[in-house]
Design brief:
Blueprint (H helix, E strand, L loop, with lengths): L5 H15 L2 E2 H8 L3 H13 L3 E4 L2 E4 L9 H4 L4 H12 L7 E4 L3 H9 L6 E5 L2 H7 L5 E5 L3 E3 L4 E3 L1 H8 L3 E6 L3 E3 L3 E4 L2 H13 E7 L11 E4 L6 E4 L5 H8 L4 E4 L1
Parallel strand pairs: 4-5, 4-9, 5-6, 9-12, 12-14, 14-15
Antiparallel strand pairs: 1-3, 2-3, 7-8, 10-11, 11-13
């Protein structure tokens, strides 16, 4: 499949990245019949437009207003890293008695790692999180009402935010599609952004959890500043220097 113009080629690259979850420079060069340097130029241009993030030897797609991965896809990508992050995040519970657990696969893993041998109230918009904890005897689950988004199986809109506005929670575990020092925490969908913003407002302590690929990525809707976070839990795949830059904005950065 050879593309005549750089615009067509770049569209093809974005489509491939979104379908497969990532692309490889060498493979793209042979598929599109162009030099590797041409592909690298394309990827730089796409990164400048916020459509992909470049990695060593390739790129992966940035979630945006027009593109979001499903929970099913997230459950198969970077799972060992997400498990480590979730376990470390659950250890930050401390003496919290009320906890907000965000939608998404990593927060779902946190829910599964929470201690169930002590009284705990968990507030969530996520159906899978509610399902994971509903059977636990000492855990009281409050599921926010609202419209269920099919890709993520989480509730949104005014029903969810209104219910959340009535609570003060000790700790919120928050995920995002992107976190950057300049633009803070972002997510593609305005309805999801509203719920996350309300959760951050409702919480005494907020912990961001996310894989290293979230850092530097910027999505459409901003819902919190990095300075609003008590801690960031990610993996050692985030470079030490980068972690330090985030810690200068206030949060403790934990890499596992």
């Amino acid at each position: 499949m050879s593309s005549s113009t750089s615009e067509e080629r770049q569209r093809e690259i974005v489509r491939a990245a979104r379908t497969a979850g990532s692309v490889d420079v060498t493979a793209l060069a042979s598929e599109l019949g162009v030099a590797k340097e041409t592909i690298r130029r394309d990827l730089r241009a796409l990164e400048d437009h916020g459509l992909v993030r470049r990695t060593h030897g390739g790129a992966y797609p940035v979630e945006s207003a027009g593109f979001e991965t499903t929970l099913a896809f997230r459950a198969t990508s970077q799972v060992p890293e997400k498990r480590r992050i979730a376990a470390a995040a659950a250890e930050l519970l401390g003496d919290a008695e009320t906890v907000f657990v965000d939608e998404g696969f990593t927060p779902q893993l946190i829910a599964e790692a929470l201690p169930v041998d002590r009284p705990l109230t968990v507030v969530t918009a996520s159906l899978p999180v509610a399902g994971a904890l509903a059977e636990a005897e000492k855990v009281s689950v409050l599921l926010l009402g609202g419209r269920v988004r099919p890709g993520t199986l989480a509730t949104v809109d005014h029903w969810a935010t209104k219910m959340l506005a009535g609570f003060v929670v000790d700790l919120a575990f928050i995920g995002a599609n992107g976190i950057s020092r300049e633009h803070g925490l972002t997510t593609p969908d305005p309805a999801v952004s509203e719920v996350k913003a309300q959760a951050v407002r409702a919480a005494r302590r907020t912990v961001f959890v996310g894989t290293h690929t979230k850092f530097g990525a910027v999505s459409f809707c901003r819902f919190a500043d990095v300075g609003a976070l008590e801690a960031i839990v990610t993996s050692t795949l985030l470079p030490t220097t980068e972690a330090h830059r985030y810690s200068l904005l206030g949060p403790q950065v934990i890499r596992v």
